[in-house]
Amino acid sequence: MQSASDRHVYPAHWEADVVLRDGGTARIRPITVDDAERLVSFYEQVSDESKYYRFFAPYPRLSAKDVHRFTHHDFVDRVGLAATVGGEFIATVRYDRIGADGTPASAPADEAEVAFLVQDAHQGRGVASALLEHIAAVARERGIRRFAAEVLPANTKMIKVFTDAGYTQKRSFEDGVVHLEFDLEPTDRSLAVQYGREQRAEARSVQRLLAPGSVAVIGVGRTPGGVGRGVLGNITDARFTGRVYAVNKAFPKDLQEIDGVPAHRSVREIEEQVDLAVVAVPAEHVPEVVAECGAHGVQGLVVLAAGYAESGPEGRERQRALVRQARSYGMRIIGPNAFGVINTSEDVSLNASLAPEMPRPGRIGLFAQSGAIGIALLSRLHRRGGGVTGVTGVSTFVSSGNRADVSGNDVLQYWYDDPDTDVVLMYLESIGNPRKFTRLARRTAAAKPLVVVQGARHGGAAPQGHTVRVTRLPHATVSALLRQAGVIRVDTITELVDAGLLLARQPLPAGPRVAILGNSESLGLLTYDACLAEGLRPLPPLDLTTQASAADFHAALSHALADDACDAVVVTAIPAIGDASTGDAELAEALRSAAEQVPGKPVLVVHVELGGLAEALSAAASTAPRTTTAPRGSVPRPHPVRPLAFPAEPPTGPDGDPAGAPRLIPAYPAAERAVRALGEAVKYAQWRREAADPGRVPEYDDIDEKGAARLIGRLLARGQGLTLGTDDTYELLGTYGVHVHRAPHAPTADAAVEAAEALGYPVALKATAPHLRHRADLGGVRLDLADEEQLRRAYTELAELFGKPEEIRPVVQRMAPRGVDTVVRAVIDPAAGAVLSFGLAGAASQLLGDMAHRLVPVTDRDAASLVRAIRTAPLLFGWRGSAPVDTPALEELLLRVSRLVHDHPEVVAITLEPVVVAAHGLSVLGASVRLAPPPARDDLGPRTLPAY
Question: Do 3 and 72 contact (CB within 8 A), yes or no?
Fold first, then answer.
């Protein structure tokens, strides 16, 4: 218990699980008086050298006074954090607030002295870097803006922790000590450092799960059948290159092996290191297994057992306990209720899943939250003929089940720089952290295609087993934000595979111009229509007639690819009849050889009931099954003989393409499917080109950021959350250069006349009651009132039509120049973060949902694209002879609103409606702003795993 002098209760929100540099996990939490014994034990395990670096003198043990000082904190001026594994300290950090003279102080002093101590056995794991991120976030929360640290010159590791963090800092050397000072405000460099460390740590944690040196299957049955025995067989069938162990506490003591694999009654009996444990025991026995694995130093778990959050409240609590238990040992979990993991790399060859066969090796990374969908995806990627023809295979596969720990975000971190993965396909039923996912997706999509299909889009809630933050955004908005981040969004798993196979083995198109050629005029016309429907620019189809030979196809394709007016080619083919008909293999070879002449343009084939051609097109250099030497002691299990539809992956060159192999062409059974995949590739290629120059967030000299912060602080002092009044709204928006036309209330006709005289005629009279606001169609607005007589007559008419003034709440406003009415909104979504939206006011946005969205902060390129993204955008650019409006002024308004929301997270909602955009300038005629206290942590905060 904290003493009575402590001024704040225990800050539980500072607790966090983090992934360290080596992929293991640790828990960071505040140090309390109950940690005295842990602190002493921790200090005893620190070397004399590390103690010397911390205290600048020999310091063999802590005194009682030291222990009291290091465990009693007020969580404001004195704060200590510890990193723990297995409940024991592995590192500590503390800060003490100091004044200008370096002595202890309280607020408003905004500087603190910081010091670290890391157990020698855990140095080099990135523990100090993670602790620095968290103690800095705590300090900022408590009003500290700057850290000071004194370090001995020989303590190069700690100096590097500070200098590599990316903060703005000063360094000096005096009396044999290096004195460091650094500001705690996040900078572009500090965020880049943080995100880089996050990526490397999380990627490493997934790599430990996908490329283990040894695997133990826990729950292997003594008789054939059952989940555990099946997974063990799948691992040995796949020729896993590492060590495999079978574990079951019910094994007889004299049982030495099962299916040629060493058998043990417990993981603790295994003398060697176990990297990965596949847990196939009932849920009630999992805690015992996790404890044994943690004690033995197992690095990660794949939990196949069901009976967790998907089964209801009791199972949800069981799932939370599972995650907490595993993380306490530094382990990560795939699952529970998982299907398993697969790695087809020849160096690993791991099939730790329920899939009975190892998929063909390839360049596609596959993630599925659902095991059933995972099976369907693997099957479709294998298939030849009668459907989408596979062009490549799988590099790695993860089916996360309830994804209680390892999620799609973690796997994205791994695939981002995985040299064996060129394309990422993901089936998601929920997105636990959309803000982080869009950030990771944007970075990944800039390097390799990311195709996503989201299930449970219209159910209104995530699947029962998934614990996620609820978003208030419609699915269409989330989809638009994902596309903005470069994600290729598709609606079905069929489209997921269609797009993935094209992107895996064909170059990105340089534009939307499509040549169409083939031996069927009707199929060519269908393809032409499909291209138009997808927004592509097809050239007139070239009909080669049904008598076309392979040479004719070769010549036509060569000519089309050589045409500078063509960016991609779709070849349509139907089976010919007669002795002189072209064979499938001959036609496939003709198309491949022609495509190789111009390797920079994609080629697709649409075939009708032509399975042989599909197989021939996707055939690689060799169709022989891969052979490897089985590990000593394992039972030889030959791979099943596969038909031509399942060729082995050819050797790859340094660029990832098959070394010396013919170019692989995807084939589709329907024109619509081929063209839809091509359309997605065209849009993605355009995004890649634009992402190379994302634009900038401009600075405006008239923005008063500090003034806005003072005003927000004063307003929030009135309550936890509030919608601002008119004057406060105008003042806050004005600090960012957003000026709203004032609209004085007119409770009487005389008050309306007085307001009009102050504003200047002509004026508008508006009813602002909720049921009449922004409803000019109901007659609640009178425009262009030129004098007092017209104003009084309009006032009387409104009262007669809608009721007393106190019911309709009339206001008077100066007339704005004529233009197009638009609406600008910004909202802080609890899951997605800050979102800026734009559309035309009225029916276009309210009835048709014609709104475009961008994530904040918005760049100048984002603002320009936002204005042009709505379907009704032509009305802004001179549609049907009307005058174009001032879109640069509109883009500047969007940028200013974005800056306000980004700079001040307390601004949780802004609505500007209507914004009348004229030929020159614009007028903001209505505005509302809502404030709320900012969240304790946001995406700019320290690295942390989802809380359990």
Answer: yes
Query: Is residue 392 classed as helix, strand or coil in its secondary structure?
Result: coil
Check: CB of residue 296 under 8 Å from CB of residue 260.
no
Q: What is the CA radius of gyration of the chain?
A: 33
* Strand boundaries in 345-411, DSSP class E: 350-353, 361-368, 394-399
DSSP string, 439-486: HHHHHHHTTS-EEEEESSSSSSS--TT---PPP-S-HHHHHHHHHHTT
Residue written as tokens 């063990």? Answer: 232
- Beta-sheet pairing, 25-30 with 78-85: antiparallel
For 859, other C-beta atoms within 10 Å of its C-beta total 17
Token output for 35: 């940690």
* CA-CA-CA-CA dihedral for 404, 408, 411, 413, to nearest 10: -120
What residues contact residue 576 under an 8 Å CB cut-off, 6+ apart? 519, 546, 547, 548, 582
Q: Shortest CA distance to 432 belongs to which of 458, 456, 403, 459? A: 403
Angle, CA of 606, 607 and 612, to the nearest 5°:
135
Per-residue CA distances from 854 to 94, 288, 620, 737, 867 (Å): 40, 47, 43, 21, 11
CA distances, 411 to each of 331, 334, 406, 440, 764 (Å): 16, 11, 8, 10, 57
Q: In angstroms, what CA-CA distances link 696 with 372, 437, 642, 865, 902?
A: 44, 22, 53, 13, 14
Tracing tokens 């509030």 back to the chain, one arrives at 722
Give the residues across from 397 on adjacent strands: 342, 366
Pairing of strands 450-454, 423-428: parallel
Handedness of CA 69, 71, 74, 80 (dihedral sign): positive
**C-alpha 341: how far from its chain's center?**
21
- Separation CA 584–CA 550 (nearest Å): 9
Token pair 């040992």 is found at 329
Q: Residue 740 has what DSSP assignment?
A: B
| φ, ψ of residue 271 in degrees (nearest 5) | -75, -30
Q: Which residues, 6 or more positions from 848, have their beta carbon under 8 angstroms from its beta carbon?
A: 871
**Structure tokens given for 936:** 């304790």
SS3 call for 696: coil
Q: How many residues does the chain have?
A: 948
SS3 of residue 360 by DSSP: coil
Alpha helices in 335-418 (DSSP H): 371-382, 408-416
Q: Which tokens hold the place of 676?
A: 């839809």
Mean pLDDT per 10-residue interval, the chain, length 948 residues? 55 94 96 96 95 91 94 95 95 96 92 96 95 95 94 91 87 89 89 92 96 97 91 96 96 92 95 96 96 95 93 92 94 95 96 92 92 87 48 86 92 96 92 82 95 71 51 72 90 93 92 96 96 96 93 96 96 73 78 91 84 57 37 35 29 39 77 97 95 88 93 85 88 95 90 91 89 74 90 89 87 89 89 86 80 90 93 91 92 96 92 93 93 69 81
For residue 169, which of 130, 95, 114 has the smallest C-alpha distance?
114
Reading the block at residue 324, the tokens are: 């907490």
Token pair, residue 905, equals 């997270």
Cα-to-chain-centroid distance, residue 54: 39
